[in-house]
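haha ok so turns out i had the wrong file open the whole time. this is the CORRECT one, sorry everyone. sequence first:
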Amino acid sequence: MNSVGRPLASSTVGRSGAVIAVGAWGAAGVGLAVLGSQLTGWNRVRLIAIAQSLTPAIAVGGVPVAAAGVVLKQRLLAAAGVATAIGLGAIVCGVGDSVGRRVRRDPIGPSLSIAHANLLFLNTDRAAESIVAVLATGADILALSELTVHHERALIDQGAGDQYPFRFGRPAKRSEGIAVWSKLPFVDVRREYMESRPGIVATVETAGGDVRIVFAHPDPPTSRRGLRHWAPSLERIGRIAELPGPPTVIIADLNASRWHPAFRRLLGAGWADAHESFGRGLSTSWPTNARVLAPFIRLDHALVGAGLEVVSVVDFDVPGSDHRGFVVSVSPESPCTRVAPTPAETECVG
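then structure:
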């Protein structure tokens, strides 16, 4: 009892309940805002675009919000938590829909391997190490973003000029540097602006036929300028990749993931994400250089179009960068169309 005869425990519980309610309502507000943006595709505010990156975590957070609503006997709070958990959870579970899509574990012809690495323009001290890691993949084609003169010099020093005689692109002081180095001859190659940043469209001659590579690195939505160009860049990348031509694969640090509506619209046009096809839709590629933050999102993608199938996709570390790289191998589409996620469960329809 205190000096006026009121129970201390009761007042403490009351204050604790108020604090929990305030915190739960704050989390509910974030969850509902992200859910609304996912359902409408709205992302004109930087904080919303960033929060969308955390969709899986926010979906899980809806559970304790709902529990708090039940304990505090606040039905609206409980309903908000349930809506967040179920609505965002459905988006997260959507990664499973692509498992097995355009996968071919026994290619009918020669496969083409493409290594992608965001080298990080600030990565000067470990530029040589990063290039050694990229060259160790032995890929037919190197797609390199945030390429600087330090990385280019390391490529030459490692003898990559002899291994990759066909080259296109240029380094830059900041994140706009981009290049494609190839063991195979270019049938056609050009520089193409993907809304604001330069990209490369290259067609290479392979034993199985020509393959077009659309290589891009759009702005992230973390600045006003970046947000303004981000979604339009994804749309432009899709339009360029859909132009008449040979089978196409999009290789890019898109600064976007499945949790962003703009990226899902790109997938909806018929592209298969290589990582998702192999059941690794929840794998991550960024950030890899943070001391206290573990990688939590995949920004780096290989999107495969009609006429090609994914043979394999393997991630690798890029020393000094804030991204993981990957190597994707593709082959001409088989006359047998895959109808199930396991190799044995296929049906020949052509």
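The mean pLDDT is 90.
again sry for the mixup
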